[in-house]
Write a structure and sequence with these properties.
With about 230 residues, the chain is an alpha/beta fold. It has eight helices and eleven strands. Helix 4 crosses helix 5. Bound molecules: adenosine-5'-triphosphate (ATP). The site of adenosine-5'-triphosphate has 12 residues, from strand 2 and helix 1.
């Protein structure tokens, strides 16, 4: 298993955001974590990436305990709200994230990730002038800098138009073919349907259903919460 958790809980002050969740993600999967706003999806990713400590429970990511430095070096993360300064170019942003990932600057690596997301020609343009889809793709390029074995994507296409969504989905599917395991948060059923092999449905901090996409499509897993169909 690439991710395994046991009764993971996160409470903020008195509010329980994630309540006793058990996840098992296999190598090579695109694992969809589906739920409405406020369900606990981002909090789960933050625990799995080591950005916040669980209140209780335990877990392993890439065979290491949550928050382990060696495992973190092989994780990529695209947050829900990817931040940038309008004046920064794509290259500036990549260099900034290279430092955040504690990597040495490498122009060849920058070119590779830009090529990967279809922005090789636009790397020296200002990100403020990019379309929404391009902004999301440069965010994805930043998440690819460490050459991750495991990639966390938090709502990667929610703000995009259909063409932007398709571009990002195609990249996600290509990354899976190259061996990357992907954990994808979404409130869009259509998004997880389009790319995921397995889904877990979270509502109010609790996993209410989990199963393969095949079983979901065959009606063996019933959606019992309101998620946006598009
Ligand atoms: P969304 O897509 O709207 O962000 P989500 O499923 O990712 O939804 P979370 O962001 O994980 O949900 O939030 C789960 C719950 O925890 C929400 O009620 C949210 O208000 C609360 N929460 C999240 N972060 C904090 C925080 N730092 N302090 C207090 N409460 C928080």
């Amino acid at each position: 298993m690439i991710i395994e958790t046991e009764n993971l809980v996160k409470a903020y002050q008195n509010k329980v955001a994630v309540n006793s969740i058990n996840l098992s993600v296999e190598k090579g999967q695109i694992y969809g974590f589906l739920g409405p706003n406020g369900a606990g999806k981002s909090t789960t990713i933050k625990m799995l990436t080591g950005l916040v400590f669980p209140s209780s429970g335990k877990g392993q990511v890439l065979d290491r305990p949550l928050g382990d430095v060696q495992a973190r070096a092989k994780l990529g993360y695209l947050p829900e709200h990817f931040r940038y300064q309008e004046w920064m170019t794509g290259e500036d942003l990549l260099n900034f994230h290279t430092s955040l990932y504690r990597l040495k600057r490498d122009p060849e690596r920058n070119r590779n990730v830009l090529r990967r997301v279809g922005l090789l020609e636009q790397g020296n343009y200002k990100v403020g002038g990019y379309s929404k889809g391009m902004q999301q793709r440069i965010g994805l390029a930043c998440a690819l800098l460490p050459g991750p074995d495991l990639l966390f994507l938090d709502e990667p296409t929610s703000a995009l138009d259909p063409i932007g969504r398709k571009d990002v989905r195609d990249i996600i599917l290509d990354l899976q073919k190259e061996g990357t395991t992907i954990f994808l948060n979404s409130h869009l059923l259509s998004e997880v349907e389009a790319v995921c092999d397995h889904i877990a449905i979270i509502n109010k901090g609790v996993i209410v259903k989990s199963g393969s996409m095949k079983d979901l499509l065959m009606g063996k897993v019933t959606l019992s919460i309101r998620c946006s169909p598009i």
